[in-house]
Design brief:
The chain has 283 residues and is an alpha+beta fold. The chain is 35% helix and 24% strand. The chain has nine helices and 15 strands. The strands form three sheets. An eight-stranded mixed beta sheet has the order 4-3-5-6-7-8-9-10, sandwiched between helices. The protein is globular and about 50 Å long.
Length: 283
Amino acid sequence: MTREAGQKTEKSDDLEERLEFAIRTAKAAGDITLEYFSSSLSVMTKADNSPVTEADRRAENEIRQRILSRYPEDGLIGEEFGRVEGSSGRRWIIDPIDGTRSFILGVPFYGVLLGMEDGNEVSLGVVYLPALGEMVYAANGSGAWWLPAGHAAGASPRPARVSNVSRLSEGLFCHTCVKNFYQHNRGEAFSRMVRSVRLDRGFGDCYGYVLVATGRAEVMIDPIMSVWDCGPFPPILREAGGTFTDWTGRATIHGRDAISTNGRVFDEVMEQIKADKKPDPCR
C-alpha cells in the first residue's frame, strides 16, 4: 500500500467514525426533545423574536458536551449557545430543534440537525426527526442513507436517492413560510415557482429537505436561513444525487438562503428565481 493510499484510508475511517458519533449524538438529543413534545411548554422569546424552549437548550447542551468531550480540538457553532473556536480545522454545526415553532405546536416535522465542516466543506451531516422516528445521514464518498418513519427496531437503513422527475411541471415544491418570501423580497419568485410545479406544499423547515433527499419532493426553497439551518444538507443532498445551494447557485451553507433540488430540475428552478435580486443587508 502506498503512503497516499494509506492516508486516504485513514481519513475515510476517521470520517466514518465521526459519522457514527454524529448519528448517536443526534439520536440522544432527539430523545431529550421527546420528553417535552406535545406537552405544556414554557416558551421564551430570543432577541431576534424567535421562540426557544428548555428542550432546545437541553438538546444543544447534550450535543455540545458530547462533541467537546470526544473531539476537544474541534470547533462548534450552535443556534442557542454560540461558537467555540477549535484548532483542528473541523467545526460542528448544531441546530438542536430545527422547526421550534412546529415543535411548540406539537407538529412532528421538526428535527435535530448536526453537520461537520472540514475546512471549507461540510463533510458529514445527520438529520433526525424524533417525533417521526426518521433519520437521513451522509458522509462524503459513503452515500446517503435513510431510516424511514415507522421503521422497525434494528432495521437497516436504505439508500437515500433523489427522484427521477426531470420537469418542474411534474414536481413537488416545498417551502416553510410563504410570508418569508414576501418579507425578504422574494414574493415574485415564490409565485413563479407555484405556477411552474404540479404541486406545492408547506412541508417546512428541515423536513422539506429530507423529502427532496429521499425522492418524495423535487424542490425545497427557503428565502432566509442561518448557517445552523443548513448544516447537514450539502453532503446529504450531494450523496443522494441532488443539489444544495444558495439562491445564486453556490454550493454553500453560508449564503443566508437555500435551495435544494433533485438535480434534474435545478436549471429550471434557477430560471424561475433569477429575476429576484437579494436585497442589500447594508441598506
